[in-house]
Design goal:
The protein has about 650 residues and is α+β, with helices and mostly antiparallel strands. The chain contains ten helices and 36 strands. The strands form seven sheets. The protein has an eight-stranded parallel β-sheet. Helix 4 packs across helix 5. The structure holds alpha-L-arabinofuranose (AHR). Alpha-L-arabinofuranose (AHR) binds next to loops. The site of alpha-L-arabinofuranose has 12 residues, from loops.
Length: about 650
């Protein structure tokens, strides 16, 4: 009996001890006066690549697909239309000798005054049209012989209702651009454009185009305002463009050539998008690049959103996952020259050839290019050989330009180690590391940079995203589990801001009906867009990066996963604030106390932003675009002690004034 009673007492005491241990707040110390590392203003940025209809069909607001009839199948996206007895014919005209870069036009011939004859365009998985919005239709046309033919332009809803209409009458027998504006009468996400010929006779057409008038900064033929706004809302430190594998191309002919992406829109030679047939499970044979979003637009967008421009250039190698085609070393000059000319285009004065072109294109002010990538995801001796030639030429002429060098597609392994060793011996500027890994990898690698050489090259975490199933699996989800793991990992990036100078999630955009790769940061359809939980993680880090890292410790150690917790602290010298980032990746709430040195005592109000979900599988969607999104609150604190409970599966940012 006595034994039983003693046992019961012991059990009760043990239970109380466990309960106490769980409810006793854990104590973290922050020395806000001890700067450990400076955080570069470039720290959190954006990776842009035309994948998943990110550019054509996405941020580039053109609504007409195959507007210049340059797809391999010249009438792809177009359909002949006739009604009420209209008769005629459509012919593709080849003018390669005259205009090799825009070699095809169409000739429509109507044989009868009666009825309607013409063609329709399906857009990029339909066209997104908004009621009350003004649309700008334009076309380049000529009449082989003078006639009274005019063009009746109509927008049709998916049900066939006319929701916008305009008339244009081409007048010239020479090529001339015509433009008309009209207002849409209904909202429709799967509209199509009809162009009817009215009258008897023939007309030749090219560059049939439709844009909303309202674009980003209301630039004519510009970018989708809602999508660029999402980028601006991240206050990104840099904009990496144009990729990604698209830089390399499946073969060299398919590589991105920046010089072909600037100037007159109808002279930018179209190119098949390398992602069109990359994945058998997501074929997109109609995916081409018009380069309406070209290097000038990339530079201007970077400037608009306050981001440092970071172009990545082909280094004489096609994608090593595809053909791996190589430019022989003795024929590399034009590629190297492209890099030198790009620097002159971005930074040169009006007295330079390329600087003058930039000024002529409407931007006399330099773009202040300071960083340039040589190659995307390259590896092997062949890369090293080409990298040496590029680097010497660039550094000889522009010693101030920092070069981003690839350490291959994986964050470890033989190729990674070889390149890492080589670049460190070469005192390379910045190494571009990529990781598309499981969420667990991100949790386990929060310490990745703790032991990197503090004096070696800077690290650009140039492409990363947690993959819920497997790399590029079509079943990957942008769920909270992945986003939370990324947040935990990013505390490690920030803690090591003396080594890591830039980081960007990849890919950026995906069209819900036209994607090839998932997960992606921002999803959109023809009218709307939403940020994923991963987007909000990126945004919270970027908006709260601070200027300098200060130590945040528990029992004298960095917080890198103990009890599922990850944390970092920084100060913002300009706003005089302390910023604490805390990730609880576990299923148990964590009562925590931050004991802060170097902050004035006295009551003050801290601003707490919480990003959380009790369900790690939670995703945002058009139905619930903000299911997992930041919630702001305030907390009355004593300046020296901040007490807070961090809920399970939660990322919290706490800001408080230092004085
Ligand atoms: O982000 C998608 C692709 O992943 C990029 O184009 C490439 O660099 C990487 O393999």
């Amino acid at each position: 009996m006595l034994v039983k009673k003693t046992l019961l007492t012991l059990c009760a005491a043990a239970t109380m001890l466990v309960a106490n241990a769980q409810t006793q707040p854990k104590v973290y110390t922050i020395a806000s006066g001890q700067v450990k590392a400076h955080i570069e203003p470039t720290m959190y940025g954006i990776f842009f690549e035309d994948i998943n209809l990110a550019a054509d069909g996405g941020v580039y607001a053109e609504l007409v697909k195959n507007r210049s009839f340059e797809f391999d199948s010249h009438l792809a996206g177009w359909q002949q239309q006739q009604k009420a007895g209209g008769k005629g014919g459509i012919e593709v005209v080849d003018r390669t000798n005259e205009r090799p870069e825009n070699a095809h036009t169409i000739k429509i011939d109507v044989s009868d005054n009666a009825g309607y004859f013409g063609l329709s365009n399906e857009g990029f998985r339909g066209m997104g049209i908004k009621k009350g919005e003004t649309y700008s239709f334009s076309v380049t046309a000529r009449k082989p012989v003078a006639n009274a033919v005019s063009l009746l332009v109509e927008l049709h809803s998916a049900k066939g209702l006319v929701i916008g209409t305009a008339i244009i009458t081409p007048t010239s027998t020479d090529w001339k651009k015509y433009n008309v504006k009209f207002v849409a009468t209904a909202t429709e996400d799967k509209a199509s454009l009809y162009v009817w010929l009215k009258g008897k006779g023939a007309v030749e057409l090219d560059m049939i185009s439709l844009f909303p008038q309202h674009t980003w900064k209301n630039r004519p033929a510009g970018l989708r305002a809602d999508l660029v706004q999402k980028l601006a809302d991240m206050k990104p430190g840099f904009l990496r463009f144009p990729g990604g594998c698209i830089v390399e191309g499946r073969d060299l002919a398919n590589r991105y050539q920046w010089k072909k992406s600037i100037g007159d829109i109808d002279k930018r030679e179209n190119l098949i998008n390398r992602w069109n047939m990359e994945f058998k499970h997501r074929p997109a044979p109609d995916y081409y690049q018009t380069f309406g979003l070209g290097f000038m637009e990339y530079f201007m967008t970077a400037e608009d959103i306050g981001a440092t421009p970071l172009p990545i250039l082909n280094c004489g190698m096609a994608c090593q996952y595809n053909t791996g085609q190589l430019v022989p070393l003795d024929q590399l000059d034009p590629y190297v020259q492209d890099a030198l000319d790009l620097i002159e285009f971005a930074n040169g004065g009006p007295d330079t050839k390329w600087g003058k072109l930039r000024a002529d294109l409407g931007h006399p002010k330099p773009f202040n290019l300071k960083v340039l990538g040589v190659g995307n995801e390259q590896w092997g001796e062949q890369y090293i050989a080409r990298w040496k030639i590029f680097t010497k030429a660039i550094k000889d002429k522009y010693p101030y330009v920092k070069i981003v060098s690839s350490v291959g597609p994986s964050p470890n392994g033989e190729e990674f180690t070889r390149l890492d060793k080589f670049f460190r011996a070469e005192h390379a500027d910045i190494l571009d590391e990529h990781y598309y890994q499981a969420p667990k990898w991100f949790l386990d690698n929060a310490t990745r940079y703790d032991n990197y050489d503090r004096k070696g090259p800077k690290i650009f975490a140039g492409e990363y995203a947690a993959q819920s199933v497997a790399i590029a699996s079509p079943d990957n989800k942008n769920n909270w589990d992945c986003a939370l793991a990324e947040a935990a990992f990013m505390t490690g990036l920030e803690r090591n801001a003396d080594v890591v100078s830039m980081a960007s999630y990849a890919p950026l955009f995906a069209h819900v009906d036209g994607w090839q790769w998932t997960p992606d940061l921002i999803w959109f359809d023809n009218l709307r867009s939403y940020g994923t939980p991963n987007y909000y993680v990126q945004q919270l880090f970027s908006l709260n990066k601070g200027t300098d890292v200060v130590p945040l410790l528990k029992d004298g150690e960095m917080v890198t996963g103990q009890d599922g917790c990850y944390a970092t602290a920084s100060i913002d010298k300009s706003t005089k604030e302390l910023i604490i980032k805390f990730v609880n990746s576990g299923a148990t709430a964590q009562p925590v106390v931050f004991k802060i040195d170097g902050v004035s005592a006295g009551k003050k109000t801290a601003v707490v932003t919480t990003l959380r979900s009790a369900d790690k599988a939670a995703v945002n969607s058009f139905k619930a675009p903000k299911l997992v999104s930041p919630v702001a609150s305030t907390l009355l604190v004593n300046g020296k002690t901040v007490k807070v409970t961090v809920e399970p599966y939660t990322f919290k940012v706490i800001r408080l004034k230092l004085n």
